[in-house]
């Protein structure tokens, strides 16, 4: 299989969580470590896109945003510029239920006719569990220059496929933004 670089976006403001989102605990373990555990069987080429030293305790490569405060679009831009792989798995840092199985399925279903492949469930698109080609770097750069930073707008501009997942596996897409949501998650699992 072609080499895949996995980039985990850890660069937001965590304003709803009010503490570094990738480091809050699920089942006693930081979110970021759950995501790394799911990602590692796919590729050990892992880079964390972060602008702080909070993740320095992890031995994986860290890269910074090239343009600060540009949201996930800025994070993906930096991830792709720093990647040596054509195929890139981009993940947010707030999806602790994600599994290797689902990520492998995304990679298996990605087809190089597309520049981006993302999951959806019940017609809700999850752009931060996706495969992104290095080919879209100029589109990201332009979006940043124009401050056109919505992920859904980015998808409109690239040749993408949406892979629908149904049934109980879709719980893996659950993203946790606030302390209330975190407490709900820890109470449930
Ligand atoms: N590298 C990078 N990642 C980002 C940036 N903004 C958001 N992200 C990441 O994108 C993912 C989804 O973003 P949000 O859920 O909005 O996270 P957030 O912005 O930290 O949290 P809120 O302040 O509550 O919106 C998370 O993994 C964030 O870490 C950014 O400017 N740079
Ligand atoms: Mg945000």
UniProtKB/TrEMBL annotation:
This enzyme's EC code(s): 2.7.7.77
InterPro entries: MobA-like_NTP_Trfase, Molybde_CF_guanTrfase, Nucleotide-diphossugar_trans
Residue positions binding Mg(2+): 94
CDD domains recorded: MobA
Domain MobA-like NTP transferase: residue ranges: 8-157
Superkingdom assignment: Bacteria
Binding-site residues, GTP: 9-11, 21, 65, 94
Keywords in alphabetical order: Cytoplasm, GTP-binding, Magnesium, Metal-binding, Molybdenum cofactor biosynthesis, Nucleotide-binding, Nucleotidyltransferase, Transferase
Cellular compartments annotated: Cytoplasm
Reaction(s) catalysed by this chain's protein: Mo-molybdopterin + GTP + H(+) = Mo-molybdopterin guanine dinucleotide + diphosphate
Cofactor(s) listed in the protein's UniProt record: Mg(2+)
Example of a GO MF term: molybdenum cofactor guanylyltransferase activity
Principal subcellular localisation of the protein: cytoplasm
Role, per record: Transfers a GMP moiety from GTP to Mo-molybdopterin (Mo-MPT) cofactor (Moco or molybdenum cofactor) to form Mo-molybdopterin guanine dinucleotide (Mo-MGD) cofactor.
Free-text note regarding domains: The N-terminal domain determines nucleotide recognition and specific binding, while the C-terminal domain determines the specific binding to the target protein.
Similarity remark: Belongs to the MobA family.
Protein name in UniProt: Probable molybdenum cofactor guanylyltransferase
Organism of this sequence: Flavobacterium magnesitis
Gene: mobA
């Amino acid at each position: 299989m072609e080499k895949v670089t996995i980039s985990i976006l850890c660069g937001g403001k965590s304003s709803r969580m009010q503490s570094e989102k990738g480091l809050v605990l699920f089942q006693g373990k930081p979110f970021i470590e759950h995501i790394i555990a799911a990602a590692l069987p796919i590729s050990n080429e892992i880079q964390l896109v972060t602008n702080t030293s909070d993740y320095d305790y992890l031995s994986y490569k860290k890269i910074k945003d090239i343009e600060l405060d540009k949201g996930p679009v800025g994070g993906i831009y930096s991830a792709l510029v720093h990647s040596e792989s054509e195929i890139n798995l981009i993940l947010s840092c707030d999806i602790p239920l994600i599994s290797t199985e689902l990520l492998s399925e995304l990679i298996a279903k990605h087809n190089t006719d597309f520049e981006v492949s993302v999951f959806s469930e019940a017609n809700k698109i999850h752009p931060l569990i996706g495969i992104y080609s290095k080919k879209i770097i100029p589109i990201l750069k332009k979006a940043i220059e124009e401050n056109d930073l919505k992920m859904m707008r980015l998808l409109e501009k690239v040749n993408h496929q949406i892979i629908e997942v149904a049934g109980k596996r879709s719980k893996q897409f659950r993203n946790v933004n606030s302390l209330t949501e975190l407490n709900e998650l820890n109470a449930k699992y």
